[in-house]
Amino acid sequence: MRLNPDGFIEVGPARLEYRMIAPRAEDGATFVLLHEGLGSVGLWGDFPDQLAAATGLGVFVYSRAGYGRSSPSELPRRVTFMHEEAQVLGGVLKAIEFRRGFLLGHSDGGSIATIYAGSTADHRVQGLVLLAPHFFAEEFGIAEIARTSAAYAGGDLRAKLARWHNEPDNAFRSWSGPWLDPEFRKWDIVEELAYIRVPILIVQGDQDQYGTLRQIETAKDECQCPVEAVILPGVRHIPHREAPAATIHAIVDFVDRLQVT
């Protein structure tokens, strides 16, 4: 199946919006981008274009159910929602005829990529690029999400999200609901880290308001695969937006050394 540069794919009951930058996934190595907890195709901005231009690889971006122009997600979402999204990712890779390349995930998207790589023996995945990922829940991050939830209830955050999501309430609750569930304090994917067999690059800001550098330390302790880390000074939770040049440079260096074409 030849996909248009943008449109929708059907994966299970969901209709997911996507954008694809040549070369196509069936033609060569491709980055598959997984967005953050409140992200979407549009909220990546021009980062996918910068990534394609700098690496020469294809880039495929999609919005998970509940986000962007994709169909809504069923609420309430469970604490295991990221494991469920890792299963959806498998369907996405099949739908786009993914041949080889990288999973690049930001925040929750990085966790979903980690779960997929640690639970599925997929030889097509040649490496992971994780931007500010979560491998376990920290009170530090949960407190920030609680503050964001309060701001959503009483501020202009909903109006801002409505610019990017067809159903901003569905998008927000798909993210905040599971994270603020008391059971989420027990959540971790440390076991999945131990089963990953491809190189990993982690990029994180040293001022990240949703997670500490213990996330990187845990990955290095638990993984049997090579783990590289780039810590960006003065950067918070969105390194590709706050420090795009440094983030792109780290990714290009990582890909070049793996000699992926």
Labels describing this entry:
single chain, 261 residues, alpha/beta, Rossmann fold, eight-stranded mixed sheet, 10 helices, 8 strands, 39% helix, 19% strand, globular
Overview of this structure, please?
It is a single chain. The chain contains 10 helices and 8 strands. The chain is α/β, with parallel strands linked by helices and 261 residues long. The chain has a single domain, classed as Rossmann fold. It has an 8-stranded mixed beta sheet, with helices on both faces. The longest helix has 16 residues. It starts with 5 loop residues before the first strand and ends with a helix.
The coarse overall form would be: globular
Q: Quick one: how many beta strands?
A: 8
Radius of gyration: 17 Å
Major sheet, described briefly?
8 strands, mixed
* Number of spatially distinct domains: 1
- Uncertain segments are none
Largest sheet: spatial strand order? 1-2-4-3-5-6-7-8
The number of helical runs is: 10
- Annotated CATH topology: Rossmann fold
| CATH-scheme architecture | 3-Layer(aba) Sandwich
β-strand percent reads: 15-25%
